[in-house]
């Protein structure tokens, strides 16, 4: 089934004409109140899958009656793998957290790869999630999975995957009916085209950038620097000046606009547009406390108050300084991240706090309700930000290298002296072990330890964690292997993905032994250098 123009128009008309039955209003309100009470948990899954929280919420209502002790796939208990279709999910061993299971369900069904969250796009994916049986075999019945409790649905329901009862009436509220009511209550905003989000004062439909233009700007001393403009077919959206000429800044800017397919060099006679985004200069702040945790939607406290005040002082509207991290604060953080050249995820960790001028602790407490990959990404970002370098056995970075010295000695790969070795894989192993992921010193039946990047590929394939380049969309907390240009086919580096935006060619990574200085750090990398993804679940 394809989402063609006719089907798009049908979904648009159905949504516009959707009226909730008056006899069902109290039931709809009850479901929505429960959804709002648990919005923070849905937001957690949104962070790692890029599926809007309210889509996750309505699926949870329909598949599991909102029960957080069951799988999002089908409502089976979390104490075991699923026994109904899809069977034997998630990968790994039970018991599972709800967040881990939800992430698996959304990835398994392709929702984490979907980017069209317009009304037609939502209808299409949700109807497909439930099955196309109504549309294919009972076209007179609008899918109750979408339209139950509305004027579009009277009766007729599948009692199993293959058995349809024409007189049975669904007792569940349909997904689009819930979303319609949430929009009427101004809890979310839906669009007939591909723009979507929470209701906030700063939510603005994004315009599609289709091409870049490069200019050369001369300084009075004869030096020059590049200026890049991001353009739609009708106007310029953003102009930046790359005075530092850093490759990472250049790649990061291009990665913001995955819809741009053309890059032009402007003639020297063409006027250079003014920068639309002023450079954010980091100034140490005496008013910001030391950051001790990741701040995100749903967190509360004095540190959130300090964040809100700082954002308001910078000119970003975080709303009232009330210590509650909700929609306005999240949107203000995203706007600040855009201007600061950071990954736009609406969360405040070391990178964003540092740009605001604050300091942060070397380690943060791990939220046990986060999925394992979210815990890995959060820990790795903080650990990499220390910028450690190995220059002898007394270096702090020796903590990454030392666990593999004895296993490597037993294999006769190194001697007894604590010498330097390329430790990017050792850094990844250290981060994994710190968040509770079991990493062997050496894969079974392999000739080398996990201090070698190729060992990670072998081990990942053994355990069903390996995905070749291009086979999956990168996700936060994935481990990624690289093949640098000029060394074709060699797995010569490894890191951890801390952030990625759908459609972007750029991933944000945390790495050890990186660059010519062999230090740990947080970097921007292009997907073209990736050889594979290791997704531990």
Describe the structure.
This protein is α+β, with helices and mostly antiparallel strands and 537 residues long. It contains 18 helices and 14 strands. It has a six-stranded antiparallel sheet with strand order 9-14-10-11-12-13. Strands 7-6-5-8 form a four-stranded mixed sheet, with no helix packed on it. The chain has a two-stranded antiparallel sheet with strand order 1-2. Helix 1 crosses helix 6, helix 3 packs across helix 4 and helix 3 crosses helix 5. It is globular, with a radius of gyration of 25 Å. About 1% of the residues have low confidence.
Strand order of the largest sheet: 9-14-10-11-12-13
User: Are there runs of 5+ residues with pLDDT below 50, and where?
Assistant: 199-205
Helical residue percent? Answer: 25-40%
Percentage of residues in strands: 5-15%
Radius of gyration: 25 Å
The number of distinct helices, counting runs of at least 4 residues, comes to: 18
What structural category characterises the helix and strand content? alpha+beta
- Give the end-to-end Cα distance, rounded to a whole number of Å: 31 Å
The number of strands is 14
Could you report the average pLDDT, rounded to the nearest whole number?
Answer: 88
How would the global form be characterised?
A: globular
Major beta sheet summary: 6 strands, antiparallel
